[in-house]
Specification:
single chain, 150 residues, 7 helices
Length: 150
């Protein structure tokens, strides 16, 4: 326990964000530390999840806004990858994580487009006149669905 405290003092736990763990991890990566997957027995750091829909939605909103703030702050994964010591793949992962709140706009738009097409009885995709193209598309779609299931 004493070693953990000394490491946190050396690296500096970063406060001022709703999601303090992400800027702290980015700072550690930027200074040259590397991440490693650790799965101890028994499972550690299980935490507690919010109960109920409203509290879950509030928590999700807080996380997404906190991660978006981190993306646009001085602890940005882009800056850490370009000017720091964050490896490229880790930088991409942090970019994907911190853009969670921004991605939701496009995901909701896509879901609304599908609902609109169902209500208006239109198609997202252009009409295909060749039966060979339809059977090829069905085979490709079936292959992709099977790959996703496994």
């Amino acid at each position: 326990m004493k070693l953990d405290y000394l490491l946190i003092l050396q690296m500096g736990w970063l406060y001022g964000s709703i999601s303090e763990d992400v800027p702290t991890g980015l700072n550690m990566q930027r200074k040259g530390w590397r991440s490693e997957c650790c799965t101890p027995e028994p499972t550690a750091f299980t935490g507690c999840a919010p109960r109920g829909l409203l509290t879950t939605m509030i928590q999700q909103k807080r996380w997404s806004s906190g991660l978006t703030v981190v993306f646009f702050s001085k602890h940005s994964p882009v800056m850490g990858t370009v000017f720091g010591k964050i490896q490229f793949r880790a930088g991409l992962s942090y970019c994907w994580l911190t853009n969670w709140g921004l991605r939701s706009v496009f995901e909701v738009s896509y879901a609304a487009l599908v609902a609109y097409c169902i209500i208006t009885n239109t198609s997202i995709f252009p009409e295909v006149r060749c039966s060979h193209s339809i059977s090829t598309a069905k085979v490709k779609l079936n292959t992709e669905v099977n790959n996703c299931m496994h």
